[in-house]
From TrEMBL:
Keyword Iron-sulfur part of the UniProt annotation: no
Key word Hydrolase present: no
Listed name of the protein: RRM domain-containing protein
Stretches assigned to the RRM domain: 19-94
First-listed, main subcellular location of the protein, grouped into a coarse class: nucleus
PANTHER family: RNA-BINDING MOTIF PROTEIN, X-LINKED 2 (PTHR45880:SF1)
Biased composition (Basic and acidic residues): 102-118
SMART domains assigned to the protein according to its UniProt record, in alphabetical order: RRM
InterPro entries in alphabetical order: Nucleotide-bd_a/b_plait_sf (IPR012677), RBD_domain_sf (IPR035979), RNA_proc/Spliceosome_comp (IPR051847), RRM_dom (IPR000504), SF3B6_RRM (IPR034150)
């Protein structure tokens, strides 16, 4: 491995970096083969999922085997022109992509967990 590549592998990555990338602004008719051609240049890919529904067209998830390959792809492919469209490449963030639940629903889930485990949610100090 080259010295520069070795240094890159030893660097500390920001917390948002992970192996899964979320890609937006893709041409609706892009094929899996084209996705592998574009993203495969940066390292081995575990999986590519291309959006096919009305809500997910033009998006895809690309999961790399190695986190450093994902970072390299994200760094180089954000703004990359594909069929006159500029790609938006982000690190997948499960919190951002999960459905938003209301505070009331969260409180209800918390109450159920407290009942299940027999806790009241209060801080208690140990007697001396």
């Amino acid at each position: 491995m080259a010295a520069a590549a070795q240094r890159a592998r030893n660097q500390r990555l920001p917390p948002e970096v992970n192996r899964a990338l979320f890609v937006r602004n893709l041409p609706f008719n892009i094929s899996s083969e084209e996705m592998y051609d574009i993203f495969g240049k940066y390292g081995p890919i575990r999986q590519i999922r291309i959006g096919t529904t009305k809500e997910t067209r033009g998006t895809a998830y690309v999961v790399y085997e190695d986190i450093y390959d994902a970072k390299n792809a994200c760094d180089h492919l954000s703004g990359f022109n594909v069929a006159n469209r500029y790609l938006i490449v982000l690190y997948f963030n499960p919190v951002r992509h999960s459905k938003k639940i209301s505070t009331k629903e969260q409180e209800e889930q918390l109450r159920k967990m407290q009942d299940k485990y027999g806790v009241d949610g209060q801080q208690h100090t140990k007697g001396k």
